[in-house]
Amino acid sequence: MSQKETGASRPSEDGDASSVRHAQFGPPSRRFRLQTLVRLRWLAVAGQTLTVLAVAFLLQFPLPLLQAGVLIAALAVANIMLSLWFPPTQRLGPKAALALLSFDLLQMAALLFITGGLANPFAPLICVPVIISFASQPLRHSIVLILLALVCTTALAFSPYPLPWYPEETLRLQPVMQLGIWFAIASMMSFAAFYAYQVSNEATLLADALAATELVLEREKHLSQLDGLAAAAAHELGTPLATISVVAKEMEREFGEDERLREDVQLLRSQSERCRDILKRLTSLSAASEEHMRRLPLSSMVEEVVAPHRQFGIEIDLVQNGDRASEPVCTRNAGILYGLGNLVENAVDYAKSRVTVTTEHSPERVVVVVEDDGAGYSADILSRIGEPYMTRRAKEMERAGGLGLGLFIAKTLLERSGARLRFENRSGAAAGARIRIEWPRAMLEDG
Question: For residue 134, what are the CA distances in angstroms to 89, 127, 145, 189, 389?
């Protein structure tokens, strides 16, 4: 176990991975609605219009009013056309978003170019389309936009138009000041874009991972409810099967001497009896599991978790510290069973020969410790453990159908049950990894 990773997942997780993919998590989920961009553009139209009018009529600075009005009108007309041609729920693909944001960038750059270039105090607004792109679009398309923005910023430094100012004064920036403003805008654009991309990407990954967690938990709950469905089916089908059995007996007495019908009637009766036996077993199974399996001692719960992993050549030892008579009786929780099972499977996958599961309890807390004799966690994995999609075997997981979410899902489900998890390497001569899961006893017993 040279490194522990999120990739260790239970076999049932492949189906969940498929469901997650069908839900279009990942890059497609970063598309935003056209209506969102249209509203932002109307805000830009309003802001640009008010600014131009204030400078021209309130401050009475000389301003190329006609050219500025044409540029603002172009943005408004483009907005109207988009609203008419496409429905409000239209979602933009990366190329369409890049085209629209590039138009916004060029329109803003042209408006700044005719109003003083880098000397215009509103010049940093050229960063806005870039930040929107990095927060919502794939990285390669956003890089194209930031390069275009840097070209436009450079062009602003060579603007021949003076800054609208008092008629008797001409305000021009020295080249060194223009260079400083260029670097300031470029630095702000790069930093803000990187920050927006990181925050958006982490939020998307977290949202997708939590959605996958919900799918896994719902699947576990669905499996735990099958016994109730079986009881309902047995109850509903019992009456018609009893009727069929009675009619089959009457037919057997009536046509018992008829060679053409006797075998068919006997087959009908035997199959109806077989169906009744099956339904009886389903009914007894549901009744047996409904009560005494709903709550179970801690040792029984841990044994249930460990049992499926004993057949892989790794010895699993169960160690119980504490009085068996006073151990907590837990409410069956699909999230706890799945989470502990995932951690045990992860330990079995990377152990050399032995996995030890230790339980201890007191009146205040319950602790389960999972240890293996592998190589332990590597330093970089240990510092980021529990993050969604954090895996060192991404290509292998992709071929296997997994998403690299196993450890994240287990950690999330256990924390929802009130547990606190600590991941560490064993110290001393015994190498390996250790996971400590601790619950407040009252919370575990109350489910």
Answer: 21, 11, 9, 10, 20
**Residue 289: which residues within 8 A CB-CB, separation 6 or more?**
227
Q: In what order do the strands lie in the sheet with 433-440?
A: 315-321, 354-361, 365-372, 433-440, 420-425
More confident residue, 301 or 218: 301
Answer whether 317's CB lies under 8 Å from 371's CB.
Answer: no
* DSSP state string for 93-160: -HHHHHHHHHHHHHHHHHHHHTTTGGGSTTGGGGGHHHHHHHHHS-HHHHHHHHHHHHHHHHHHTT--
Task: Report domain extents, the chain.
Answer: 31-212, 226-290, 296-446
The torsion of the CA quartet 336, 342, 345, 347, rounded to 10 degrees, works out to -90
Calpha distance 113→142 (Å, rounded): 23
**What is the separation of C-alpha 372 from the centre of its chain, rounded to a whole number of angstroms?**
29
Q: Strand, coil or helix: what is 432?
A: coil
Segment 5-63, tens digit of pLDDT = 433 333 333 444 344 333 334 444 456 778 888 888 899 999 999 999 999 899 888 88
Is the pTM above the cut of 0.70? no
Distance of CA 137 to the CA centre of its chain: 17
Give the whole-angstrom CA distance, residue 70 versus residue 200: 35
The two structure tokens encoding residue 427: 């110290």
Q: In CATH, what number does 296-446 get?
A: 3.30.565.10
Q: Do residues 437 and 419 make contact, with C-beta atoms less than 8 angstroms apart?
A: yes
CA 198 to chain CA centroid, Å, is 15
The CA distances from residue 159 to 69, 110, 167, in Å, are 19, 10, 19
pLDDT tens digit sequence for 410-440: 887 788 888 888 888 887 667 788 899 998 8
